[in-house]
Write a structure and sequence with these properties.
about 110 residues; alpha+beta; Hypothetical Cytosolic Protein, Chain: A; 3-stranded antiparallel beta sheet; 7 strands; about 30% helix; globular; disordered C terminus; YlxR; YlxR-like_sf
């Protein structure tokens, strides 16, 4: 029987369910995504595996603005730094969501 004392969340990057102990909670502070490893910051949170692959997938899918219910572009630099400390990734920090004045095609080219 599964242990029901540990909550389960879905990673916004890979869409797999996992215990909260395996996921990193992310909140919005101003216009930037902030990691909340202690799960104590106020506000709506989104969960992501603390891996470069899941972070890239979440950015590519524009999952953070949708999960956190914000429409403004979100800076991922602080979150990227936090994930990179756990691994050795060296990808630049993109902005999540469409930037003002950019077409959807151009935004896709920028985010890769």
């Amino acid at each position: 029987m599964a242990d029901t004392s540990i909550p389960v969340r879905t990673c916004v990057g890979c869409r797999r369910r996992a215990p909260v102990t395996e996921l990193l909670r992310v909140v919005v502070q101003g216009t930037r995504l902030t990691p909340d490893p202690r799960r104590r910051l106020p506000g709506r949170g989104a969960s992501v595996h603390p891996t470069p692959e899941c972070l890239r997938a979440a950015v590519r899918r524009r999952a953070f603005p949708r999960a956190l219910r914000v429409s403004a572009p979100l800076e991922t630099g602080e979150l990227q730094d936090h994930v990179d400390q756990a691994g050795d990734g060296s990808t630049p920090a993109p902005t999540v969501g469409p930037a003002p004045g950019r077409s959807a095609r151009r935004e896709q080219d920028v985010l890769g």
